[in-house]
Write a structure and sequence with these properties.
The structure holds 2 protein chains of 2 kinds. Chain A has strands at 3-5, 10-14, 19-21, 24-26, 31-38, 44-50, 56-58, 64-68, 73-78, 87-95, 104-106, 110-115. By secondary structure, chain A is an all-beta fold. The relative contact order of chain A is 0.34. The chains are: A mainly beta, B mainly beta. The interface between A and B is medium-sized, with 18 and 20 residues.
Chain lengths: 116, 115
Amino acid sequence: AQSVTQLDSHVSVSEGTPVLLRCNYSSSYSPSLFWYVQHPNKGLQLLLKYTSAATLVKGINGFEAEFKKSETSFHLTKPSAHMSDAAEYFCVVSENSRNYGQNFVFGPGTRLSVLP
Amino acid sequence: GAVVSQHPSWVICKSGTSVKIECRSLDFQATTMFWYRQFPKQSLMLMATSNEGSKATYEQGVEKDKFLINHASLTLSTLTVTSAHPEDSSFYICSARRALNYEQYFGPGTRLTVT
């Protein structure tokens, strides 16, 4: 069975400082991993995804994440936070097997606050 | 490409009535669609998986007679909340899995408020 842990429920950074949102996963198969962002009362926007290609994945809006199999981690980073980055971030794992489909398991989410 | 829409985006209904939410894949065919529920300040929880032309598969604890899912075509799935109660108030999000590459795309969500 697959599961996702997001170690911090809330992260607060100052504008212009680096962002680190942590995610650890467990999966029986070679997983696909995703980061989604959700602004208040909005749907989900895909930031980036890992699907067994390059372990360092670059996404939109300057975000990137590194897949580390030995640590079962997929942490999300950004060098410099912007006020518009304030939102809820979800790490998602999917066992991308054709037999089992692409069922997503969502982490509990991390709320990012950006202080001026 | 790969856009998923939901209608309505926001609905208020009275307790005891039924509400239908539509999920459409606008520019691709989706053999499978998923319905999620998100309570305030919580994560998304999968409610059910629907495959075109067959019955939906519900997650444990989700009442299939209360949350009716129909996936009659490759571009449309509907979720009907029957006899809605205030505790059904939530943000409902659908996703569609593209038949071509098995990628999953999310709709913008529907906020249901039951008074």
